[in-house]
Every structure is written in C-alpha cells, then in structure tokens.
Amino acid sequence: MTKDEIMSLINRSLFASVGYTDSSGKQNIRRVFCVWHDGIGKHLISTNTSSSHVREFMKNGNACLYFSDDDTFEGICLSGNIKVHFEKEFKQLLWNDGDEKYYSKGVDDEDYCVLEFIAETGKYYRYDGKGELSKEEMQGTGTFINGYAG
Amino acid sequence: MTKDEIMSLINRSLFASVGYTDSSGKQNIRRVFCVWHDGIGKHLISTNTSSSHVREFMKNGNACLYFSDDDTFEGICLSGNIKVHFEKEFKQLLWNDGDEKYYSKGVDDEDYCVLEFIAETGKYYRYDGKGELSKEEMQGTGTFINGYAG
Predict the structure, then answer these.
(1) Domain that holds residue A44
(2) Structural domain count of chain B
(3) Cβ–Cβ contact B36 with A under 8 A
(4) Which segments of B27-128 are extended strands (E)?
(5) Taking CA atoms, what residue in A is nearest to B126?
C-alpha cells in the first residue's frame, strides 16, 4: 500500500479499534470514533474520563490503533502510546455543537478528555501484500486535521 | 444487550478483531474471518501457520476477540486464550472447496491451521448501556456452528 492509500483508509474509516492490556493482564479492544489525524502516526479521540480504558491509559499508555476496511481487505496496525489530555486546546479542538448531551458541563466538563495516540511502529496488511511503515512515512505536518470533514 | 442480541451480532459480523501483546511487548490487532462459533464464548479461525500472530500465539495464547457493528453501535469484547490446532478434525471442519488457492497441499498443508479462541470473561457495549457476561451466558452446546451459513 502507498502512503496515500493508507491515509485514504484512515480518513474514510471514522472508527478505529484500540488494543491494550489492562492492569489485570487481560487483553482488551475498544471501538472508538477517530477522525482527527496528523499524518499516519498521530490521532485524537474524544472520550469519557470515567471510562475503564481511560483509567488504564492514565496508568499505562502502551496501546495499538487499528484501522481497517473489510470490503477492500485493507488494515493498518499502529503500535505506540496514548496520552490523556485535559488541556483546553485539545478539548476545544474536538468539541462539536451538541456535545452537551454527552458532557453536560460543556467543554470544561471533567468527564470530557482527549486521547492522543502516537505511533512508534506501523504495519499494513492487504490482499496483495504486507509491509512496515518507517517513522518518516508516519510523520505528519504537526497539525491535526478532521479527516471526516475533509 | 440480551444473549440473543449478542449472538446475532457475532453471527452477522463475519470478521472479528484479535488483540494480543507480542513477545517484544507491543500491542497488536489483526482482523480475522471468524464465522464458526460455539455459543458466545468459543470461536474458530482458519489461518496461515507462518503468520506472525500465529507464531506469537504458539508462545503465548493470551488474547481478546472483539465483534462490533459500527451502524448499531454494538460491541462485544471477549478476553481469554487462543490454542493453535493442527488436528485434522479442526482443519477438515473449516476447509472449504477452493481453499487450495491459499493452501496448495490441501487440508493437510502444514501452513494451514485453526485458531480456537476460548473466552474467560466478556463485556458488551451499546448506546443503551454496557455489562459483563457470566461464564454460563458464554457457554455453548459443545458443537461449533458456521454462523455465516446459518
């Protein structure tokens, strides 16, 4: 897969799967809405601070993020780390009109936070072959873009 | 979600995501075709012995299996173990006409194997709430059924 084909998969996916090991040693996957991207390697996800996966990420950020399309048999698995952000710049960026129905106190709601996933390594899988991504290939421009709106 | 709603999600999914930690400590997810089920808790997956995830499961079977539907906002995460089977009874059960194009030596091809996932714990997630599954709820009848054909 080319870098453009991988970015196309990421931008049209809307959802991604997060994989992590919880503090009891169990493997877990959570499905998350993930549309803010900076290149192939960095992604933002808004979520509830009170969720069990967020509590785990505050202790241990080791995680993977997987984007796939079952119709085209394409998948990309990024392994790296998750940081939990409470800074207003992140919360404001991902806030949408109407999100008050999820977070009643608005953008400052302490139950609202933003996960930043940062890839260390990446692999792609497709019917015609698999391969590894270099750090250079995963590097973005330093600005997060909403791939859903684009 | 009721047990029937969870079984319906599993049967119509066709694909599932497997989560595991590899021997270097990295988190990984692989998308797999998964249509053979024995209740909520046991699932069979045919795959290539030479795949990196199979090599990892031969060393450490700790894994999770995740079924989801992005349209209905339903997800089920089973945590447990994977056994790699080379016995003819498993390989014969999952073999389909035409699989020779993947495994040139036929059902006895040593690159063809069957993963058996066995859940220890289970959680479901839906817009209207989440919950945990008991071992009794995940228990099947002892017979694997092809949910795709059914």
Answers:
(1) 3-146
(2) 1
(3) no
(4) 27-33, 36-38, 42-48, 62-69, 74-85, 112-126
(5) A31
Name the pTM for this structure. 0.95
Asked if the Cβ–Cβ distance from B25 to A66 is below 8 Å, we say no
> Three-state SS for A106?
helix
Could you tell me if B136 lies within 8 Å of chain A, comparing CB atoms? no
Min Cα separation A19/chain B (Å): 6
Q: Which three-class secondary structure state does DSSP give residue A43?
A: strand
Contacting residues for B44 by C-beta, under 8 A, at least 6 apart: B34, B36, B37, B90, B93, B94, B114, B115, B116, B117, B144
Q: Are A87 and A93 in contact (CB under 8 A)?
A: no
CATH number for the domain that contains residue B54: 2.30.110.10
Overall residue count recorded for chain B in this entry? 150
Interchain CB contact of A79 with B (< 8 Å): yes
Pairwise CB contact (< 8 Å): B26 & A66: no
Residue-level pLDDT, tens digit, chain B, 150 residues: 999 999 999 999 999 999 999 999 999 999 999 999 999 999 999 999 999 999 999 999 999 999 999 999 999 999 999 999 999 999 999 999 999 999 999 999 999 999 999 999 999 999 899 999 999 999 999 999 998 865
Collect all residues of chain B within an 8 Å Cβ-Cβ radius of residue A79. 26-28
